[in-house]
Amino acid sequence: MIRLRSxxxxxxxxxxxxxxxxxxxxxRTVFQTxxxxxxxxxxxxxxxxxxxxxxxxxxxxxxxNTIARAYRLLxxxxxxxxxxxxxxxxxxxxxxxxxxxxxxxxxxxxxxxRYFGLNVPDxxxxxxxxxxxxxxxxxxxxxxxxxxxxxxxxxxxxxxxPRAIALFIPELTVPTALIxxxxxxxxxxxxxxxxxxxxRGDFSVLENELENVTFNLFPEIREIKQxxxxxxxxxxxxxxxxxxxxxxxxxxxxxALPALLPGAIVTRTIDKKFYQENIGVSxxxxxxxxGADIRRFESSRPRKTK
Length: 306
Fold this sequence. Notes:
It is built from 10 helices and 10 strands.
């Protein structure tokens, strides 16, 4: 059995800079990986295709799942001579702004590239990932990254100082399409808080421009943010379009937050090195944390045929 880990992300800041002819919004955001992960267990099967199952009934475990789409997309460009039984233990809930599905897709792409010895060039892999979702290219890399466009244009940033964070994930799903459909862009040009952050390195200047829309539709998320601020977090923000909210502050305040806000999780930010060493297969094609499991199959795995 091969085991892979698929980590979550938060958006340290998010700005909407415009709209595109295809209806998507132009964004500027700072992605950051955190130590919360799904686990993918894979067993090779003789016939092509995936048999996919998972622990969260809210996720569709069918051909529309991002893992199945990643396998199908590579299969359209390369010969994949075998398939896999895939079982996913979900810790990252859907509709929370944590990138669970996007991370699953990216890790599957990286795994297939390694397993079949495809050696897909970085540029082509990023293009394939972007076809699966705007956040998927980020999860090919991890760490602290500036995302622009719809999130697919990536610029690595100096790694953020490791921080303990409190994370609260409400038991509700926030549809991203709904939030963007209610967003009203102003023609007034405001200075970019993200550009200011890039100059200063100060989290406190960052904000998420989707918060007001989400808070108006789901006021309970605003209340979560207020509780975290009252609990002593210095910086509290919704991630993505919601519903998850994270707080950064003194370690002792973060550690005490679950007592004030039952259900809150204490975790931490993780850098690019940790991310790539622990997903199970590195973007460079070298086996990493679970490499021994992959190498056991090296002698029998099918080779690329085109």
